[in-house]
Structures are given as C-alpha cells and as structure tokens.
Amino acid sequence: MRNGMVLRVILILAIVVGINGYIGWHLKVFLSHVGGTSFHPGLYWIVFWLVALSYLIAWFGSRVLPSSVSRLFKIIGSYWFALIQFGVLLLPLTDLVIAVLHFASVSPMTYVPILGWIDVVVVLALLLWGSYNARTPVVRKHEITISKQAGEWKQLRVAVASDIHLGVIVGNRHLRKLVKQVKAMKPDLILLPGDVIDDDIKPFIRYQMGQTMQELQAPLGVYAVLGNHEYHGGHIPAFVEQMEQIGIRVLMDEVVHVEERLYLVGRKDKAAEHAAGGRKPLVSLIEGIDLAQPIIAMDHQPYQLDVAAAAGVDVNLSGHTHRGQITPNHLFTRRIFELDWGYLRKGNLHAIVSSGFGTWGPPIRLGSQSEIIELIIHFTSNDREED
C-alpha cells in the first residue's frame, strides 16, 4: 500500500513537471523570438522554475523563510495556478494552428510572435475578467417555505457566507465587502459553512482580520463550522479560540436550539473522518430533538443529501465546490456532487450550495462569481409548501 502511494506521488509530480515544462517551452520559444540577442535561456529556466514551484516553496519554506518572502512566493504561486490552466487550454490550440502554418510553409519568424502575443492578450483579458468576478461579490437570494412552525416567527432572514478563505490572498479588503453587504442585508442569523480561513491561521492573526470579522453581527448570533482547509492547516484549536474571541461560535458536531424555536446542526467537515475523533453520523447528532421544529444543518461538503433528507433536516447549507472557480472545472464538480452549486429540493429538504465568498489559489473566477447567500425562510403550519 505504501509503494502504491509513492507511485501515485511520483506520477502526480511527473504530470505537474510535464505540464509546467510544456508551458515553459512555449514561453521560451516566444521570448526567444521577441527578445532577440538579449534573451538568456539559462537564466530564463532558473526564473521559470522559481515561479512554477513558488507555491511549493512557500508551503515548505514557511517555517524558515521570512513571512514577507513566503507571502510573495504564495501570491506568485497562486496566480501561476491560473496560468497553468489557461496554458493547458490555449497552447494545444496554438500548436494546432502552428501545425497548419508549418505545413503551409509559413516562416516561424512570422507566426510565432503573432500567436504568442495573441495568447498573451487572451491570458491578460482572462486574468482581468476573472479578478473582477472574484473581487466583486454578489448577493444571491433564495426564498423557501418550510411546513413547520417556529414559535411566533413567520420568517427568518439568514446571511450565508461559505469559503471565505482568509489568509495571504484574501484579506481585510475583501472581508470588509462581506461585512458591508451583510450589514445591508440586516439578517436575523449569520451562518458560515466552513473554510473561513485558508489553511494557515497566522495571517488571520497577523493582519488582525478578527477585528474586521467581529463586525458581523446578528440578533440570533453568528455560527460557523469547520471546512477541509481548517483541517489542512492543522490549527483548529487556535481557530476556534480566535472565533470565540470575536463572538462567533464554531459548531463541531453540535446542535444549538436557537431561541427554542429552531435547531441549528453544525457538522465537522468530511475531512474529520480521517482525523482523531472522527465525526458523528448526522442521524446520531439529531437523535432526540423535536423534529416538529425547523432544522438547519451546516455541512461544508455537499455529500449525502439523501441522508439529510431522510433524517428530517429542512435546510442543508454547504460550500466547498467554488462551482469549479475557473471554468471548465465546473464540469468536474457537477460529476462529483449531486448539487455543486445553487438550490435543490429533495423531498422536504432544501439544499443550498454556495460558490463561496473567497477563493482558493488564484483570486480568479471564471464561470463563477464570489457570492453571499441571502436566505429567507417562511414558516407555515400548512401541509403545502410554496417555493
């Protein structure tokens, strides 16, 4: 089993090196045609591999590199992830055109610079467009009806923000947009379904993001659950402590009876299944609660919606998928998850998956947009429900 894991790691590394080498070779050919005699191939490859491996350098060197240097490498590496995807999509098409022009006996001195500059312009346009989508969050409204009573409440307004990914890339500037838009919403309750931080807790503390996040206020409170990135970072106790200090309660396989009218179920992330303590099955979590009252569950990854529906959950809130973040990745998330974005009715369950407020890796979104969910829940004792 260990040998199999080693082989998989070697295979992944070989693919990563191969793809980067493919992109690097094309960039070298282009620069050699436009750089003239000033182009130095040896220096080029040194710089190229520093850029291509910058995220790994930041990751493994975080303990020994100065924080400013590690931060720079992580920013460069994050953008490089986007450039890799653009390269994988654009360069095969470029090669196809080159093949046609080659057989047409057109000189490379003519077509290489032209095709290269076309690719550069396309990439820059995609970066600008994707940056706008990532940095301009929208509010998406979902209005649902639950055929249960919640005391004298007729409706509940809930602000939902998943996958904020606070850290080196997503910081206070973007976080202030969340605070401003949520305040304008005037929610009764604020829910954060996982990945509040992006692996490492240190940037959150260093840049005092808690002070900004503390401005998220709601009469019924602010609650969060853990996402896979909190587990990847391995700073869960520190994260929970930071959240508690600013009045946000992190639910880890816990149930809260809100005003004795509504149950809020907060699950550990699916990653906890392989961590110490594991995570409880949903059925055991809600065992013994009054199913006649509304039940809202937060589960970062949108798996097993059928289990939530069968257990009597009324609303299931998730994130994690980012809707692929950069198209055409959404084609993969669609195949992995029954619902990778938006709304799905499954029996009496209302499932909602957000594309997330922040980003992982490059602060780029194509085919998706940073979003906050405004969820309005109507409560009724009627057997019929209206969506």
UniProtKB/TrEMBL annotation:
Segments forming a coiled coil: none
Keyword Transmembrane assigned: yes
Cross-referenced Pfam families: Metallophos
Ranges that cross the membrane: 5-23, 43-65, 77-104, 110-132
Keywords on record: Membrane, Transmembrane, Transmembrane helix
Record InterPro entries: Calcineurin-like_PHP, Metallo-depent_PP-like, Metallophosphoesterase_sf
KW Ribonucleoprotein (keyword) present: no
Name assigned to this protein: MPP superfamily phosphohydrolase
